[in-house]
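Hi U.,

Before I forget, here's the chain from the pilot set. I'm dumping it here mostly so it's searchable later in email.
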Amino acid sequence: MLFAKQVIVFLLAFAIILGVSLGKGQASSPSSPQELLQMVNQRFSTLKDYKCQVVSTKYTNSKPKQDGHKYFFQKPNLIRLEVNIGKDKGAVAVYNKAGKVRAHAGGLLGIFTITMEPNDKRLQDDDGSTFINSHLGGTIKDIEKALVGATASIIPPQGDQKAYQLQIERDKRKDIIFIDGQLLMPIIWDTYQNGKLASKTEWKNLQIDTGVAENLFSL
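Structure:
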């Protein structure tokens, strides 16, 4: 009888411990797109620097056109971008401590370096996004804007897939943003128009707080 009581006590204790563990696990998992984005914002607020390879692919008539660059970022807002894929291969742009953008083209024109103001129109993409907001903090703000007035849902990591899927739908557009489950940073952003993949942005080999050298932000 004493043995039976000991077993019951042990099982009760195990159940309590298991319940606490599960409760903690559930608490750390986002229950809504807004909660997931809050976790991503919090992670970005604590990082000091990061580096990665960014690859952007646009699909026109189902034909992919790809551009890519190495990207280095250090807070508060130092940026270095080195184009290594696409027509501008060899070009480099740096946003330095003086609040200026220094840049040179690839190829033979690489011997000429120019200085630009951050708001120079030459530093803007077709969609209006700017070089100085090209870091992941800017990407997070873009996600926040996309969520406004849209239908959104999240799919937690499953099996070999170690990323959350944040799905945002509005009219004929659907965005699927993959958030790394450990880094809590965007690693892929797919945009669909009328059910067809229109563009893909990938942040490959994302490394956070590895100590990006300050001399990278001089040109």
